[in-house]
Amino acid sequence: MNYNQNPSTQLLAQMFWVIQKQDWYQPDVYLYKDLIIALSKSKKMDEAMKLWENMKQSPDPPDELPFRILLKGLLPHPLLRNKVKQDFEEIFPDQSIYDPPEEIFGLR
């Protein structure tokens, strides 16, 4: 399912908050990543930031790959991307992040 094409992105996020409270729920960084990108593309940045903060507090240690995928998906959203980038640098201090030239993604 392509969440950013779906007009029900907000409904998906609301369902996620309900499911997350269930006893059987296990955090999934890839689900977080998909929802954050979908919310960002839907211009629901407050909800995307709330979800990002929730993901950071997950009991499982974050993996590097979802961060990198999220950073790429957030190129059109510099404020949220910068926050994610700062968190990545704190969690993975020995890793570097490639920032592509803005003109490649039509941001100029």
Explain what this protein looks like in three dimensions.
The chain is mainly alpha-helical. 56% of the residues lie in helices and 0% in strands. It is globular and about 40 Å long.
Précis, in short:
This protein is an all-alpha fold and 108 residues long. It has one domain.
Keywords:
108 residues; mainly alpha; 5 helices; 0% strand; globular; PPR_rpt
Give the topology.
Elements: H1 9-20, H2 29-41, H3 45-56, H4 64-73, H5 78-91
Helix pairs in contact: 2-3, 2-4, 4-5
Distance between the termini: 30 Å
| Main sheet properties | none
Shape: globular
Q: Total domains, how many?
A: 1
Q: What string gives the helices and strands in order?
A: HHHHH
Beta-strand residue percentage: under 5%
Q: Strand pairing plus helix content: what structural class?
A: mainly alpha
List the total number of helices: 5
Average of the residue pLDDT scores: 77
InterPro entries: PPR_rpt, THA8L-like, TPR-like_helical_dom_sf
Organism: Mikania micrantha (bitter vine)
PPR repeats: 28-62
Protein name: Pentatricopeptide repeat-containing protein
